[in-house]
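Re: the 260-residue chain
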Amino acid sequence: MTRITLAICLAVFSLSCAFGAPLPFKLKEKVSYSIDGIVKEMRIKGTLGSIDLEIADISKMNGRIVYHCIAKIASTMLIQNVFQINDVLDAWVDAKTYAVYKSTLSIREGKNTNFITQMIDNKSDTITHTDKNNPKGIQYKKPKGAFAPVAFFYFLRSQKSMSPGTYTVFQYTDSKVLNLSFAGGSDIKVDALDKKNKIKTVTAKESGTFGVSVLLARDFDFLPVLMNSFAIEYQKNHFVIQGKLTGYTPGTPVDETSVK
């Protein structure tokens, strides 16, 4: 019996090596969020813009499997009459460590336009940055183990244990420390995920820099479905920025061994 059990285990192991393991996130997964401004006391709510995220491709870079993530940030037509925002970020994120190897950012904010390229050496934590004002490139350091914002979005979803932790997120030369804790969440209705039934959530709270709370969908790869910023008080009114999931496309599973 022991030999039979051993043979079965070896067969399962051999098959898992031959076919590889499915990657945590799927090709062509798309998520969309509305960004709303809310003044609670005055019962005012208005949409300021939207954020769309997509895993456009899964390939290899530097011998590592990477997600090619695209994030599009846009203001609404109403806001664009005052200040237009149309930014597009491309980032190549390691599928296991969530380190970013390369990113490009096309900026269109009001009259300001720019195109930024960053190459990141994660061994030396050195970023080589080029843009229209620095065509020859400049270099600076990032904190060791720090995450780019788009990479942290996927890293947070991968942490199924939901253990408290302290993380650093960087953007250019600026970095912020995030202190995260997790607690049980309520069952809520999210039409983008299930039009009929409520979904189970977990609450992630950031108690350091931003004071943001996020509801994560437990049965949908811990996808953020509702995000609230800390309240900004002005003349006894409280202004909150809220992100709400408005669209979700699951994507197609990809096996490690099929990535070229």
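The chain has one domain: 19-249.
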